[in-house]
Write the C-alpha cells for this entry.
Amino acid sequence: MSQVALTSRGPDERESSQVRGGGRELTPLRRWIADAPAAYLLLLPVLALFAFAVVYPLIQTIILSFWDIKGLGKPKFYGFGNFVTLAQDANFRQAVVTTLTWTTCTTALSVGMGWAMALLCSMAPRQTLIPRVLIFAAFGVSEAVTGYVWIGIFRGDAGGLLNSLLGALGLGGLAHPWLGDAQTATWCLIAAYSWAQTGLPLLVIYAATQAISRNVIEAAYVDGASPLAIMRYIIAPLSMPGVRVALFINLLGSLRAFDTIYVLTGGGPVRSTETIGFFMYRESFTQFKLGYGAAATLILLAAVLIVSIPAIIQRTRTTT
Amino acid sequence: MMGKAPRWVPIVTWIFAVVWIVPLLGVVMTSIRPPQDTVLGWWRLDHVQFTLDAWFKVWDKYKLGEGFWMSTKLAVIATLGTMILTPAAAYAFQFLRFPFRRTLLIIIINAFVLPQQVVVIPLFTLWRQMGLINNVLSVLIPYVGLSFAWSIFLVKNFLEDFPRELVEASKIDGCGPITTFFYVVLPNTLSSITAVGILQFLFCWNALLIPLLFLRTEAPLPVIFAQIAGTYDANWDLRAVAAILTTSVPLVIFLIFQRQFAGGALTSSGSKE
C-alpha cells in the first residue's frame, strides 16, 4: 500500500523520504508531516501577520456589512439593509457609473497608448530609448503627486495650461473651470490617471515585442515584407500576451485607485467623481457609517474578483 | 527590427514623449521661478528669473521635514520586515512538506487581488480599541501583512528554478530543513529579495490611504502633501517644491531599478510564464 503510494509520487520523492527516514520507508502520514515543525516555525510570523492584516479584516468587512453602525452609537443588526440602501442611494449609483466610466476609459487609454508607443518603439529600439524612459518616468511619480500635477493643467484661473492653450489657439470661448464642473471633472481625472499609467503597458508590451524571435522577422524581411507589414502581421499579433497582462494590471489598478482622485478632485464637485473605492472612504471615514462603507467595499471586492477570475484560476492551477 | 524603420517613427515617439513630460516640466518651472512671474502661467517668458527661495521657505511653511523622516522610517522598516520574512516562507512552501501547504499557499498568493479598501474599516476599529491609532505599528502591520500576497509568490517563483538536488544533497549531508534554508537556499535568493525590497519600498513610500486613516499626528510625506495639494492655497511655488520632494525618492529609485521593478511587477502579478 505504502509502496504504491510512494512510486506513484515519483522516484524523486521516494529517494528523499528514504534519506530522511535513514533507509526506512516512512508511512504516508509521517511523510505528510515530516517537515511540519520546521515549516510552521519558518511560516509563523508570516501567517500571523497575514491573518492580522488580511484574513481578519476581510472576514470582519463581510460581517460589518450586515450591521448598522453610525459613529460611536451602538451597532444594530441590519440584515441586507445596507445593500438595499446602497441600491437606492443616488450617490452610490453615481459612484457605480463613475467607476465603470473611469475603469474602462483609464484602462483603454493607458493600455492603448502604451501599446501604440511600444509598437512604434520596437521599430527603432535605439533611437527611442529616451522617449521610453520619459513616458515611463510619469509612471514612477507618486499617485498623489500626479493629482497635483494635473491641477496645474486644468485649473480655471490664468495659470491653467489647458485654458491658456485654448486661448492661444483662438478658442478662448471654450475655456472652462474643468475641475469645478461635474460634467468635465471625471474626464480630467481620467486624463490624469491614464497619463500616469501608460508607462507600465509600454514597458510590458515593449518587452513582449523584444522577446519575438529574430528569425521570424528576418524571414518576413527576406520575403520582402515592408517594415509596416512586419509590424501589422508579425509584431502586433505576437505582442498580445503583453497586452493581456497590461490590461489586467491596469484594470485592477483603476478599480482600487484612491490617491489621484483624493488630490485632484476630492470626489467633487458634489460627489460626482467618486468611484466605489472612494465612496467607501467617504461614507466610512468622514461620515463614520462603517457598516454602510463595508457594504460598498464588498461591491468593489465583487468587481475586483470578477476581473481577476482568469488570473486566480491560472494561479491556483499552476501552484504546486 | 530588420530594415530601416521609417524616419517618422522616432520623430513621433519623441513628440509624444515631450508632450508627456510637459505637466512635470510645469511643476519644476513653478518651483524655481518667483511666484509673481508664474501667475499667468509658468510658460510665460516675459521675465525670466530663477530663484530657489521656495526650496528654502517650504520647510518652515509645511511640516515636510518631519514627513520626510516619517516616510523614510516607515518605508525602511516595512521593507526590511518583508525582505526578512518572505524568503523563509517561500522556501517552506517550495521545499518542505507539511499539512495544508497548498491550501495556505493558494490563499496567500491569491490575496494579491484584494484592494486595500477591503482591510481599512476593520483595522480602523481594531486599532481604535487597541489604542494603536497614531502608532507606527498601525501602518507597519498592514504594509508588511499585505505584501506577502505578492512577495511570497515572487520569491517562490524564483525558487522553482533553484536546483532541488542541492537541497537534497544538504539533507544527505545532515542538514535539517532550517539549516538548509540558511546555508543553502537563502544566500542564493538575494536577487529576488532585492526585487521584493524595491517594490515594497515604493509601495510603502507612496501609500496614502492607510497612513491617512491611521497616522493623524505624525503623518508621512504623501499624507502631508495630499492635504496641502487639494486646498486652494495660493502658494503654487511652495506646493510645487513639496510635490517634487514627495515624489523625488521613489522616482529616483524607480528609474535606477527600472529593470528589477519591471521583472518584479510582472512576476508578482502572475504573468511570468
